Amino acid sequence: MTLSTKFTRREFAKIAGISALTSLAGVRAGLAASYPSKAIALLVGYAPGGVTDLAARLLADRLGQSLGETVVENKPGATGSIAAQYVAKSNPDGHTLLLGNNPEISINQFLSADTGFNPETDLLPIAPVYTTTHAVVVPANSPYSSLMELVDAAKASPGKIRFGSTGNGTPSHLAGQALAIKVGVDMVHIPYKGGGPALTAVMGGHIECCVSSLPSAKPHIDSGVIRIVAVTSTERIQRVADVPTVKEVLGIDAFDFPLFAGVFGPAALPVDLAQLIHTKVADALNAPELKAKFEEQNIGLMNLDMAAFAQYIKEQTAVSKAVLSEIGLAK
């Protein structure tokens, strides 16, 4: 006997949809199970030699041992946005990842009408890697021995105090500008093309102060050619424990301008695959020898789950937008 079954179009579409979802789930599960099937590219949006590049190479070396061959690729340009756009538009199979920083993740989209991608919708925050702070530094022979003296001088002579940064719209610019806004002083911003030129300027006494990443400034602080008067973190930093925070000196609540880096992938990356990568990155960062290498560079490691990391990125983005809007740089 032959059993004949007829389906309405709606019923057929429902069955087809279930079949497609089941098939897609199977494909995604298969991706995680067989991952990686080739070398993983970890992109950095900056030239070799910087803090991000160093962190990427330390992480890639460890991931190569626990996950699979991981190769760092430098794609500098547009303050990190070229590399970020490349990853955002890549195949979401986990083989193309980004070690992203503040500019391309939480700043650039407010400086340009079109960066070629939207970090909030085109990139998936997978795993935090590190955070470090900014240092407010002055020349070794500066008449200002503390942040309070520097601020008092700025209040007494508006427009006299010049602060250097790594460039317009960079994290160090935002940190310095936010400081000026919070205490109500008029300081002149001098943008340089990177941390090296900015530090060179303050060493030579061409500017009164500079806001620099602590890892970049620390060797010059140790050699005595510049002095550090404050850090922009919420708490003191162990390796410069005698240096106060901006909050301590000036009583500014919630003043925190970190430099962060984390692993990002295309937004369509399957969640189970993203979670696998997150776990492997977290395991790598927990290795004692890797922790020690990051500490040598005055870099603190971050430990957040995927949801908390995504929330952290949202908060940093909101802070960047607020400061850029207040100083008239937001598009």
Written overview of the protein:
The N and C termini lie far apart (72 Å). With 331 residues, the protein is α/β, with parallel strands linked by helices. Strand 1, helix 2 and strand 2 (70-74) form a beta-alpha-beta unit. A six-stranded mixed sheet has the order 2-1-3-10-4-11, with helices on both faces. A five-stranded mixed sheet has the order 7-6-8-5-9. Residues 1-5, 11-16 and 18-25 have low confidence and may be disordered. It is 47% helix and 18% strand. The chain has helices at 9-34, 51-66, 81-88, 102-111, 119-122, 147-156, 171-183, 195-203, 214-223, 246-250, 271-285, 288-296, 306-326, and strands at 40-44, 70-74, 96-101, 123-132, 134-139, 162-165, 188-191, 209-213, 226-231, 259-266, 300-301.
Task: Briefly characterize the structure.
The protein has 331 residues and is of the alpha/beta class.
Side-by-side strand order of the widest sheet:
2-1-3-10-4-11
Beta-strand proportion? 15-25%
From N to C, what is the helix and strand string? HEHEHEHHEEHEHEHEHEHEHHEH
* Number of helical segments with 4 or more residues: 13
What is the CA-based Rg, rounded?
23 Å
